[in-house]
Every structure is written in structure tokens, then in C-alpha cells.
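Aim 2, interim progress. The first record below pairs a target sequence with its C-alpha cells.
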Amino acid sequence: MIILNLVFALTAISSIVRTPNISYAENAQTKPEYYAKVTSDDVNLYASPSSLSPNALFEIPKSYFLIIMAEKEDFYYARYNDVYGYVKKNQVSVMDGTPENPFYIQSFRVFSLGGLPLYSKPSAENGSLVAEVPYLAENLLYYGKMSGQTLVPDKSSTWYFCKYTVDDNFYQGYLYSIFCDKIEEDIPLNNETFPIITTPLFPTDIEDGLSGLSNTAKVLIVVGVSVPCAIILYLLIRPTLSRATLSKEKKTPFKRKRKADYFEFDESDLG
């Protein structure tokens, strides 16, 4: 019972130390989204926080934005339109503003007479079939391009990562660009720009909340937490010690003296 009371007390006190994080969370609720601008070519959205080629989903169109939601080491966890993934931190600029057109929205068509297979990877050999897109289908939404298998010799190796919608269902995958409208060469630049954010987006450690305090203030906080803990521990243990001491005293039996241990006085000895 003592241990449970002590844990409860320590938990209550530690919550006071974490107060700076609570204020940050409240501030984050007023600005839940951060937009990061892609300012160079060859910036990919990855399926996992690794820049290895198999993890790349597609190349994000230059000058457009992602919505940053979290971070993991050298990557941001982000959303481009309705696709979630990871982008390298050093390849985007997080900005303090909300763009009017953050994503490149463009539909396109398939010109293959027999239709075109939509694959899970930019390769007919390594990818699995996701759906069959019919000839002149227009309900295709372009996300970005990705280099893959060259299906037609001496032609492009570019594939389009896209979304195909049909009968209230949608499928995401890759279409070989040779048989589609040309998109990647005609994407207009998004000229929207805002001040760049240089402060941490998602501080989580207690030290982040206390980083603005001096060393003296931090020492006082530690002492202020340690002293109440020691007092609480003493008050919780003291009654137990007192009861143990009293119980020991009650259990000590009275030691009766033996006859040999004392002298019996007789008046005849006075003469």
C-alpha cells in the first residue's frame, strides 16, 4: 500500500514537470498542419523512412507541397494529396503558411487500344496486377512519376503513379507512361511561398519544454521535485516504523528474578 501511494505521489509531481509539453500541445491544436515545399528535383515520397530505391513511391512534382504530420529521425511523415509516406527532411522547406494549391491535380487518359494494366510496382515483371484500365479512361488522377522497367525497347522508362476510380472504388498503382497522356514535362510551377520555419515542429522531450530555462532554474525544479518526494516517503514509512517499535515493546516479557539473585533479610541477624 505504501508503494502504491508513493507511485501515485511521484506521478502527480512528475506531471508538474511536464507542464511545458502540455502548453505546446495546446498551441499545436491551433496550427495542426505544416506545409513543406519541394524546392528541387528528384524528391521522392517513400513508403517507409528509408531512401532505398524499393521504398520510393513516386517523385513529387517540384514546387508543390506536402502536409507534415510527424517526424522520424531524418524523415518527415507526410501526406501528398491522399497518399501517405515519408520524405527526407533536407529535401523540403517547412513553411509558415497555407498554400491555395498545395498539390498538382491533373487527370489523364490511356491510349492503348486494349487497355493498360495497373501494376503495384513500376514493372510488369516484379509488380502484381491491381486493375485493368480501359482505353480512353479519363478517371485517372496523377500523383507523380517513377522510373521503372522499360516495356518498349528504346523508349521511356517512366511510369505514372496514379489513382484509378471506377464504380465508387479506387485503385492506386503504376501505368506505363508511353501509352498515356504526357504529363511530367508540362507541369507548371507553383510560385506560392511563405516564411521558412526553423524551430522544431514536434518537440516531445521534457528537455524541449525546459530548454528556455537557465541552469539555475532547472536545478531549482529538480530540488523542488526531490524534496517533496523525500517528505512523502518519510511520512509514508514513519507510521509503519512506529507500529513496529511499539509491537516489539509489547512482546518483551517481564523477567522474573530468581531467588538466588537477591538476599532475604532476617531480623535475627541484627543480634
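The second target in this work package is listed in the same format:
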Amino acid sequence: MAENDNKFTLKIITPDRTFYEDEVSMVEFNTVEGEVGIFKQHIPMTMIISPGILTITSDGDIKEAALHAGFAEVLPDKVTILAEIIEWPAEIDLNRAQEAKGRAEERIRENAPGTDMKRAEMSLRRAVARIEAVK
């Protein structure tokens, strides 16, 4: 089987731009139900994205990005990700991400009345995804 026979189209769209569009052999990301890895001929489905690292594999090359939220549509020959926010490591300010992580951890630790814990936990997960993408 030829190398290209194992590839499918990956398209990642944000409100501001087409972040990525190319033929790939695998994509991995987090969903609210856990981590997934998608190959060509995957069964059709839709998924809600959870913050984490998106990994794209193509021709032995691996690219990573911090993916924060959105939806994915999986078809046998195409995956479309509608991302609220996704960033390449070069687009991330590591100091700002580390500061955001500290603030989120502090809000969670204090658990003060009126603190939106789900929001604080989501902020922490986004900050960790940014830090992991840069490292």
C-alpha cells in the first residue's frame, strides 16, 4: 500500500483563520471522554474537545499545538476541527502561561465563596496545555 493511501485530510479552523490544512497519517487530541488517535477510515463521529496537546503525524514528521476547546467531526477520509483557540508553540508566551497557571492554582487552592471552580479548573488545563506545547 502506498504511503499516501494511509493519509486523510485534516482541517483545523478557528474564528480567525484556517490554522492547518493538509494530508496527515494521524491526529491525536483530548476529548471530554479521553484521549483519541485518529487514522484514515475511522468511523464517523463528532467529539467535544478538551484542553490538551494536539499531535499531527505526517510522513514521520510530528507537529504539536496547544488545543483548548472546540468540536471535531471525524469522517473516514477527513477530520475537521472547529477550535475556539489553538496555538503553535512559537505563538505561546511561556511566562504568561506560567503566570496564568499560578493564578488558576491559587483560585482552586483558596476555593473562596463565589469562585467558579469549573472555570478555574479549565483555566488551569489551558495554561498547562500551553506550557506543555512549548516544552
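The first strand starts at residue 8 and ends at 13. This observation will shape the mutagenesis plan for the next reporting period.
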